[in-house]
Amino acid sequence: MATLDINRVRKAYGNLEVLKEVNISVGDGEFLVLLGPSGCGKSTLLNIIAGLEDITGGEVLIGNRVVNDLPPKDRDIAMVFQSYALYPTMTVRQNIEFGMKIRGIPAEERAKATNAAAEMLQMTGLLDRKPSQLSGGQRQRVAMGRAIVRHPDLFLFDEPLSNLDAKLRVDMRTEIKRLHQRLGTTIVYVTHDQIEAMTLATKVAVMKGGVVQHFGPPQEVYDRPANTYVARFVGSPAMNIIPGRLLASDGVPTVAFDTPQGEAVVRGVPLSAETAHRFAGRDVLVGIRPEHFGLDPCGTVPVGVDVVEPTGPDTLIVFAAGGTEVVARLEPFDAQVGRQERFSVKAEKVVLFDPATETRLD
Amino acid sequence: MTDISQSAAVPGTAPQRPAATLSARLARWLPRLVMAPSFLVVLIGVYLFIAWTLWISLSSSAMLPRYDFVGLEQYVRLWNTPRWHTAVINLFLFTGLFLGVTIALGLLMAILLDQNIRAEGVLRTVYLYPMALSFIVTGTAWKWVLNPELGVEKVVQSWGWDTFAFDWITRPETAIYCVVIAAVWQSTGFAMAIFLAGLRGIDSSIIKAAQIEGASLPRIYASIIVPLLRPAFLSVIVLLSYISIKSFDLVLALTNAGPGGSTEMPSTFMFAYTFQRNQMGVGAASAIMMLMTVAAIIIPYLYSELREDTHGH
Ligand SMILES: Nc1ncnc2c1ncn2[C@@H]1O[C@H](COP(=O)(O)OP(=O)(O)O)[C@@H](O)[C@H]1O
Ligand SMILES: [Mg+2]
Fold this sequence. Notes:
The complex is a heterodimer of chains A (362) and B (313). Chain A has 362 residues and is an alpha+beta fold. Chain A is built from nine helices and 22 strands. Chain A has two domains: 4-233, P-loop containing nucleotide triphosphate hydrolases (Rossmann fold, 3-Layer(aba) Sandwich), CATH 3.40.50.300; 240-353, CATH 2.40.50.140. A six-stranded mixed sheet of chain A has the order 6-7-8-3-9-10, with helices on both faces. Chain A has a six-stranded antiparallel sheet with strand order 13-12-11-14-21-22. The two termini of chain B are 48 Å apart. Chain B has helices spanning 2-9, 17-57, 73-79, 82-113, 120-128, 135-146, 152-158, 175-200, 204-212, 217-228, 230-245, 248-254, 266-276, 280-310. At the A-B interface, strand 6 and helix 2 of A face helix 9 and helix 10 of B.
């Protein structure tokens, strides 16, 4: 078990800068998720932590030890790959034992460790099969078993679930979470799926174009996203970003935006007095999560219902505001397209962004 | 009867029917018509002549074909000919060395080329180029290179190493190794290309996984990558065996089965006995022996390939 510190890490392929000054630091036993769209440099960062890619600048520390120049095998890590990376010509048992064999662990101990891992992952019956005779989910288990028997300081997962179908993905997600709770080992997990990030992580690093946009606990990333990019990337449906304005302050920060049905006013948004003073009377971007709207006859947001999408547990209402489409997630009610309604907003959950830099205003 | 009732049941299909059957008939016959000439040529050129050769090998034919039947007499004569023994021993020696060295060198070169070196495209073409040459050209070129008066020996001696000797091609006990050298030179690039294609098909994360587990590069190759190249090995072995059994032109151009018949191969033996020494029956018997050897290699290979196909791999 170990801490992980990534200090000012840079990576370039020739002139192409793939990672720019990445700083991440997690404590012992944490579950770090690197979240971002395809091509943002997540795998590159993971490979740098593993030692499979060399580093252009900065330092990586595992358990307070600089590992920049250590080969992968000396970093005490285990990795699970998207393609599973099982050795095709070996049986499941040989796959799991291969690493232990190389480390010179005696046969009895190897068998014991393999059986224990197989039991833990419920794949005892698969030990004598070849990878080609396994389903995707079973291969994933084998890959995890191979990582577990290493008892590493650090587990690395590179999009381990993205080759599985939706149902299995949810099951395996739970399994990975259980594994983390049981072993307590520090994990770095790469994904482009924000739900995986939210459900698994103790810390999330949202990346874009080789830059960490927001690093923090998942709830913080969700509630107080650092910029509009993070706000839109995390959460489904995404956070609504509505062009509006901050009204001249009377001590309670108040924002307003326009809907075709009139002006919407939200009083008491979280904002420091200093920022409220600085932005008073100026345009801001008003970030409201869909679930923070509520149906309320006395609400301050007049809306005309454009689209109704019942999902079962709740109903999504699409309406226009500030010149964009806005989605509200409400308790199911008798919604009618074209009808006018009034919504309230949980003001304390509203996030404001600077329209120029798109970063959060505090 | 049924025709009428069917077209009555489905009105509207009836008028299109003659046209449809004509084009359907054409579609059915066209492939057969196109294939027919080549099928005929193969039937006559290959199988008919195999049958004919088999017959000749069972007859008393000498200078001209004679269509009688003498049983296995020609085979007995064949196996009592010392020169045939030399040919068979040479074939095994040559095949063993040729396959071993070509596969080892080809695999080594493929592994080196697979390490993402620069100018890979150029190197690959350079190595593959000899394969485009005819064995006659290879044989002739190497005849000069290996000739003590003209080639390597002469050059090294002219550099001042007077006692240097490389005269294998003139000595009966070593001449066969010269054939091996030339054949290896010609075929290594081909083996390399097949191995390289196999290596390129391997998921790189498998290698990364093994690296993280602490396997050294030689270990990764020995335990994981080479076993994955099994299909490539099979292809190379079968194709090289086949090349070595029919390596007629190379021997003819390089040593002409000499010196003193020391580089005789079954193919040159067959040619000499059938067309030069007026022992057509013995020649045919040797040809049938070669056919059986090739079949012994090819049939299990095809069988295993087809079996894997039906298993869906
Ligand atoms: N070996 C390489 N050479 C050049 N560019 C690369 C190489 N590997 C990755 N890249 C580039 O680096 C960027 C980040 O890649 P990667 O880390 O794989 O993204 P992600 O895992 O987030 O999808 C991509 O734009 C990719 O094209
Ligand atoms: Mg990736």
